[in-house]
Amino acid sequence: MTDLPNMPSFDSLALKPEQRCNKVFNAIIKTLLHNRNQWMTAMQLVEDCRKLDLAQLRGNTPRATIQGAISTGLSTARSLKAEPPIEKYKATYGVCYRISLKLFPKDSEVIALMDMNPPPDNVNQSPPVRKPRPKARKLTYTKKKTQTQAKKKKLPPKKITSANKKITQTNRSTKSRKQLYHYTSESDSEESDSDSDSDGSETDDSDTESSDEQPSRKKIARYHSTSDFTSESESDSSESDISMNTSQQDTNDTLQNEIDDFNSSLCTTNEPSDFDINLSIGPTSFAVAQEIGYSYARFRHQGNMRYPKSNCEDSFCIKDLKNLDGSLLCRLFCLADGHGGPGCSAFLTTQIPECIENMLRQYDYSQLDDQDVQDKFKQDMILLIKHLDDEYLEAKREEYLRWQVHETSAEPVDDGATLVINLFFGEWFININVGDSRTLIGCKTENKWIVEFSSEDHKPYLERLALQIYSNGGVFVDNQDKPIKFDPFPQDRNVRPNLKNARIRLQSADNELGVPYKNNNGIHFSLNVAATCGDLLFKLDPSRPVISCMPDIFFEKLGPFTEYSGNRFMLMSSDGLFDHLYSNKAEIQNQTIATCIGQQLDAGCQLKKIVAHLCNREGDRHLFENTLQEYDDCTCILVLM
């Protein structure tokens, strides 16, 4: 885009006072001025209005709010017999808007330099179609009957003879097709590939030609539809079942194909052989996948290329902790999800193995049945994490002090991280959690996969954390940095519903170290997690930290560790997985992921394919939200137990 001189101010535009009364319309005009009056769709206007904090576009239909405000502005101009304030251009992907050039001052240099051409548009292309959002609780998806089929009168049943029975079943199969999940093992996929090549070559060619004509921002995993010769009662019963169909009649191994095609550049996977561990003891069947966060261009004419982050802020560690004689003491799985930078997460995963190894040498796992021993273990672990947090914060204080006296030219970065640690200590499984990274254990009972255990996310709405945050100087705000009313008296409940989507910032953030507390737009820095390591801004007063690093610790006795029997697994993941699911309720998220993993294990999929499938958040439209502009870092560690 051509560099333009400073755009005219909002007050200099030829708008009458009656046209300046609508706040949403004013926000639209200011957003277009901020983007130098280039053509923008309603959804782009929604995103920029929110980022610039010009209008509170709440509700489920913010795009309709923008379109309604533009229509109101045009009708107001007609009633005042004034010039239309907004110009429209209908493209194949939607209607675009910009400020009418007649509103600018006549002596403005902007008009002469402004691009008068319509937005780039290719009439041969059509926008990608978004599938409707499925219900979170239903994990089988069946195409609904059309209105025409629903209104048809039921004809009296005809007698079916043996001669035409086969024809009747064939006709019925074309009307009842169900969209189902299919996970196949490698052997099944090889057979199905040969069948599909021989039977459907013409169909494959036509599909390829049509796909070349349409723009594709990304590849989306396609789940093949199958035809079941079942009655309506059987079809209804299958819909109510919460488990996914794992039929081995799939015609293609879509899971592996989509992983190879889509995640080859940003997603990496690791297996046990990639780590320095003893493969004959403890949990030896596991896999790790990590995808670097990325974003898409804001405007359609800028292309559909993904822009990855410069650094992945997730860090993980898998290591065998050993006794002084070299024997195996414990197997450690550690994951830290950084925010603000990768420094804190890398520090934690580097320091934790040695610290925990020295601590565990003082314990005998056979004594953990004693509650007093467990309590002492918890206290030692709390002190260990507190010590690491203090060490990192002190290093950050020194960095800011050196920067204040101009000993260093580069301004320090105030970053933090969540932390989740899982220990396989003899016959015990121990979970340590700080923040909103999550661990869940899934098990199979009566041919259904359920959640046996899941860690609790440390969110601002938890009653036990909200009181401490408020009393130590924290303020709860919404996404627009508007304070949320908080009752300082304890409540007889575990959560506070009004803090469901709350963020945390400070009441007064001026400090001698010069730690920044506002961004360039004057908006306070805030966090949506209520327990972290690092984050110096929220721990300027060590005696009264707004956000603490207090962990939750969970014990479960597994018994002597045996080979995987096909009925239990552990998943630990950063919030980059769970935040992109359809449902925002932790219980539904956990059950959805447990069922998804369990069905793939039953189908014989390899572990590295399963974790890569989870990290590919644009590949499974039944699992994850529709197209987003930004995707966070995502790390998944799957262990068979």
TrEMBL record:
Signal sequence coordinates: none
Start-end of Basic residues biased regions: 130-157
Domain of life: Eukaryota
Pfam family, one: PP2C
Coiled coil feature spans: none
Gene Ontology molecular function terms on file: protein serine/threonine phosphatase activity
Region Disordered: start-end pairs: 115-250
InterPro entries reported in the protein's UniProt record: PP2C, PPM-type-like_dom_sf, PPM-type_phosphatase-like_dom
Gene3D superfamilies given in the database record: PPM-type phosphatase domain (3.60.40.10)
Extent of Polar residues compositional bias: 161-173
Compositional bias annotation for Acidic residues: 187-212
Domain PPM-type phosphatase: 293-641
Name used for this protein in its record: 10096_t:CDS:1
Organism this protein belongs to: Funneliformis mosseae (Endomycorrhizal fungus)
